[in-house]
Design goal:
Elements: H1 10-13, E1 28-35, E2 51-56, E3 60-66, E4 72-79, E5 84-91, E6 94-101, H2 105-109, E7 115-126, E8 129-138, E9 146-151, E10 171-179, E11 182-193, E12 208-210, H3 212-227
Parallel strand pairs: 6-12
Antiparallel strand pairs: 1-2, 1-11, 2-3, 3-4, 4-5, 5-6, 7-8, 8-9, 9-10, 10-11
């Protein structure tokens, strides 16, 4: 599992979907391809995540990304109406959940580097939708800039109160991100509008509840155990 767990932070950073309708349809999923184009091929890469899915129903979203064979999985259930943020972490059989409301959320997000958003006139078509490029510059100079691609052709945006990239206009369909010496590229492959099972947005009852500081320590511990 070495070099497979750094992606735990990723869904926190970008995926916006949930509020609004598109041609009368307000629920479905965005399927993202996850690739590592800057990595040299190796047997370890068979453990890397290859896909992420964001389910949305007009008021809520549920994003899922996991390593091969589900050894480590991060899920984010967001309630845009109630302004609740839930991070579900499953690692080697241990299940933990962090639940925050809008007032509590800064305790979590402020543990990560802040960003400055730099708009550009560049565009890129992703999954059939024209996306505008925004550059995210981290206040921490040691982190590389991140290219964000968002479209206003879809009306699936949350209000971004929970998002590190709050302020980006439209739905994010693509980005690069680098953490722990690995650079990952995420691009939306397909957007499917369909009726979803309401159970997708219900919180499980078999997870141990922890706070924001404890969740950050847990994630850091997983990374240290398997990356160092």
């Amino acid at each position: 599992m070495r070099n497979t767990l750094w992606f735990l932070f990723i869904p926190l950073l970008f995926v916006q979907c949930g509020n609004g309708e598109f041609f009368g349809k307000k629920e479905g999923k965005i399927i993202f391809d996850v690739t590592f184009p800057y990595e040299q091929p190796s047997i370890k890469m068979t453990l890397y995540p290859t896909e992420m899915i964001c389910y949305f129903n007009g008021k809520q979203q549920h994003s899922v990304i996991e390593s091969a064979w589900g050894m480590v999985k991060s899920e984010f259930i967001i309630d845009h109406k109630k302004k609740e943020f839930h991070h579900l972490l499953t690692s080697m059989g241990t299940k933990q959940i962090m639940s925050l409301n809008e007032q509590q959320f800064p305790v979590w997000i402020n543990q990560f580097p802040a960003v400055e958003l730099i708009p550009t006139d560049e565009t890129l078509v992703i999954a059939g939708y024209e996306c505008k490029k925004t550059i995210a510059k981290f206040n921490n100079d040691s982190l590389p800039f991140v290219d964000l691609y968002s479209t206003t052709e879809l009306h699936l945006d949350g209000d971004n109160w929970w998002n590190t990239y709050a302020g980006v206009e439209g739905t994010l369909l693509g980005y690069d991100v680098e953490q722990y010496g690995k650079r990952m590229q995420v691009r939306a492959r397909e957007i499917v509008f369909e009726e979803l099972d309401p159970a997708l947005f219900q919180l499980p009852t078999d997870f141990i509840s922890i706070g924001a500081v404890e969740m950050k320590k847990t994630m850091d511990g997983i990374v240290n155990d398997y990356l160092n």
